[in-house]
Amino acid sequence: MDKMPAWADAVLVPLISILLAAILSALVILAIGESPLDALNLMVEGALMRSSGWGYTLYYTTNFIFTGLCVAVAFHAKMFNIGGEGQAMIGGLGVALVCLFIPFPHWSIALLVATAAAAVFGALWALIPAYLQAKRGSHIVITTIMFNFIAAAVLNYVLVNVLRPQGAMDPATATFPAATHLPTFQEMFATADNPLFRGSPANVTFFLAVLACVGFWYLIWRTKLGYEIRAFGHSESAAKYAGISPVRITIVAMLISGGLAGMMALNTTMGEAERLVMNATEGAGFIGIAVALMGRSHPVGIFLAALLFGFLYQGGAELALWTNIPRELITVIQALVILFTGALDNMVRMPLERIFLATRRRNG
Amino acid sequence: MTLMTKFLGASAALALTAGAALADPALIYDLGGKFDKSFNEAAYTGAEAYAKETGGSYRDIELQSEAQREQALRRFAEAGFNPVVSTGFSMSTPIASVAADYPDTKFVTIDGFVSPDEHPNVLSILFAEHEGSYLVGMMAAMASKTGTVGFVGGMDVPLIRKFACGYAQGALAVNPDLKVISNMTGTTPAAWNDPVKGSELAKAQIAQGADVIYAAAGGTGLGVLQTAADEDILSIGVDSNQNHLYPGKVLTSMLKRVDVAVAETMAQGADLETGVMVLGLAENGVGYALDENNEALVTPEMKAAVDDAREKIVAGEIEVHDYSSDDSCPALSF
Asked: Where is the signal peptide (chain B) (predicted)?
């Protein structure tokens, strides 16, 4: 069967999807009596034209890279892990526990240990649904989403009853010791006469996310395990025939997936708040699904998609700050992008494919 | 000033920020959102009252994520807004980390606490919700015929337990044999805005015999009030005066005068006096609502008893235990 060229599949389809979402968003903004052009200006100015704006954009991007990779690993094994949210919450608990109870001499050691804790906690939270899927056939979509609620309840219990400092109102842990403070972009790049990234939360975890992208590529396309995951994803029966154990791959893929989701908590918990708050994940686990879909489960695509959503989040904050566009509408704009790039992918792809094939036939 | 002009210059074409003049106040709503018919809406009402009375303008933002807390504080402070008023206890930590960078800006945290010694430019406004809840608890006990009263909280956090604890103490002070049922809506921020679940909890409490239910749950409380009205029992509203929502069905509302606090801090502008302010019954910061919608429900004995208790609390003769002081409640277990 004929296919359209790879560049069109990877670049043109998402671009047209974003464009469609943008046009629809513009109409919505126009309908409530604001100027879409001014809104776009404000978003670009606030998210990309100032270094502190970039600091926020990259902060959100870091979250979405981790959760995007989390969903993508499961996708390669043809599983739909929508429990990234809960896995990240429990990952945050792991980060908080090591940061609060181990006296670290330096942030780099703290980061290493906290990364391991976040990954282990997140992976263990994914292990239960994975086991149920592999051994009992309980569908992973159902179990992972239910585990999000259980994670929220567990976290709430731990924060309100165990880790909350006496008398504090906020369901949050105490602030982590100063030794666990991760260098922010401001501390890394700002100089006395050039105050870059002022006050923004982007931190060293961003580089960890980039490393995770590279590691992801290596794992999926350069290792035996990655090959087995992909083979299992393409055809379970063929994989079985080739001697790949479905139980093992299901569990291993979900462990990696949960570990990546857990690592997202490093950015929000250790990097930004420096304490564990109830609401640390903020839906990034779900945005990860859109990021993975849009990025075609490839690390480069995921990085770019995460950047786009980072821009939408930070740009949305600017809109909320300086315009009268209500918060709900900003969510609508973000949702439109998800809808077009994720759910309505074929709406763009199929006509485009036909156009490409038609032109090729004429030329041939 | 230069920062301000720079900012205005950058977005002059937008004309969206035209309202921002130097030293306008700014208001930051917590994640519950501006129109929650309760806590945040009370802040909005206060800001609107300020704008109407003084002819001034203000800018506000509804937060969407945790990271925006610090961001909103910084952007408003950098743009020259003063004071920057915020609602919700979650703002106290972000304010503490930002305040030192903007010594000329006054920050106000409503429900939050920031140490005045470390941050001299922050005003912490706290309400004695347990005192107000005590009074409505007394009213609930006196209005109840079944000997069972209910409490529906929003998210299970210490602040809401403080409401529940005061309520239970007031109810048990009237009738020590009374049964107080307490339920929390949930463990995520969604619990502030889930009227359907609120309605279910109210039904469950009615099935257990409750005939007065106090809702301290933001938007979720609307479901409680509606179900109570449908099932022909009484409810008690919270924060804003919610008596008018179901006239004759809402026994009273526990008022928390967030609106007054916001309007007054905004009116004081950059000269705002900072420190810690606790608004209780004595300061009229909390209380119960009595208007034409519920005057038929509140009997003269009820009013006399509650007003008497109010005076005794103000005078220190009755001490209402504050849950947040030691994380425990003598009248109710969670």
From this structure: 1-23
Q: Which structural domain range is residue A299 located in? A: 60-307
* Beta-bridge mates of residue B184: B153
Is residue A22 in a domain?
Answer: no
Compute the 3-state secondary structure of chain B and give helix, strand, coil in percent, each to the nearest 5: 45, 20, 35
On whether residue A267 sits in a domain, the answer given is yes
Residue A343 scores a pLDDT above 80: no
Tell me: pLDDT of A266 over 70.
yes
Interface contact A170-B64, CB threshold 8 A: no
Nearest beta carbon to residue B189 from set A41, A279, A320: A279
Domains of chain B: 2-127+259-279 (3.40.50.2300), 129-256+296-326 (3.40.50.2300)
Contact B178, B334 (CB under 8 A): no
* ipTM value greater than 0.85: no
Which H helix or E strand runs over B97?
helix B92-98
Query: What letter would DSSP give residue A158?
Result: I
Domain annotation covers residue A289: yes
Give the residue from B91, B67, B240, B314 showing the smallest Cα distance to A283: B67
| Residue found by looking up tokens 């007065």 in the block | B212
Three-class SS of residue A169?
Answer: coil
Instruction: Pick A273's closest partner by Cβ from B13, B63, B66.
Output: B66
Residues of B in contact with A317 (CB under 8 A): 64-65, 68, 71-72
Q: What is the CATH number of the domain that holds A249?
A: 1.10.3470
Q: Is the model's pLDDT at B15 over the cut of 80?
A: no
Q: What's the number of domains chain A is made of?
A: 1
> B16 and A170: CB-CB below 8 Å?
no
Residue whose structure tokens are 């896995």: A87
Length of chain B equals 334
Distances (CA, A) of B172 to B150, B177, B178, B245, B303: 12, 7, 6, 28, 17
| Chain A residue nearest residue B102, CA to CA | A199
User: Which of A327, A328, A333, A334 to substitute to test the interface with B, most B CBs within 10 Å?
Assistant: A327
Q: A233 to chain B, minimum CA–CA distance in Å? A: 34
Instruction: Name the strand (E) or helix (H) holding B133.
Output: helix B129-143
B273-290 residue pLDDT tens: 999 999 999 988 999 999
Question: What pLDDT sits at residue B151?
Answer: 97
